[in-house]
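Continuing the batch. This is chain 6 of the set; chains 1 through 5 are on the previous pages. Same settings as before, nothing changed between runs. Recording input and output for traceability.
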Amino acid sequence: MLLTNIAKIKREKELKFASNSDEKFVYHLTCKDIGLAFWNSIKTPLLVGAFLGLIWACTSIKAPTFLLRLAKYMGDFVVVFSLLCIGSFLEKNSIVACEWYILVICVSLRFILSPLLGIAFSKALKISGTLGRQCSILSTMPLSTVAYILASSTGYGQAAASSVVFWTVILVIPSRKGQTSPLSLFNLANERLWSGVFG
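Output for chain 6:
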């Protein structure tokens, strides 16, 4: 997020320079730009919500029921409207709004590299059975709407994010079926290994 905000600042300076001069634009990164990019990253709604949640979790104050329900309803609204934004963006462009190679790389990272990282962490932390399998499967879940929200807030990668969200939703079922063999290979599909721990 920090890098995309720096790129956004660079683009704004380049546009401002191009309107005032015909010379070639040369960008020099300054501490002021880094500070501004950091501040813009902190102000995003996702990070603000995460910080507020962490602060609340550090206190011993019990959340009122109405506040929890209100937060749940508002969270559901965010998902709905974010999906509407993705749908309207894809309707104006295409279901593959970015270059094909970008889509293939992103989907491959999601469905191949992510579960392999989940398996690696499970083996490193000595997690096996059901919990290890969940770690691997959850890493291949669709990107949902977070990727598009981040892309739209920074102004970069909206085409790639919307296409990847769409195709990860379409391909999540076949990818789960294909995970059986790597899970079995790393002994993460064995239910009996994990049931003995809590039995």
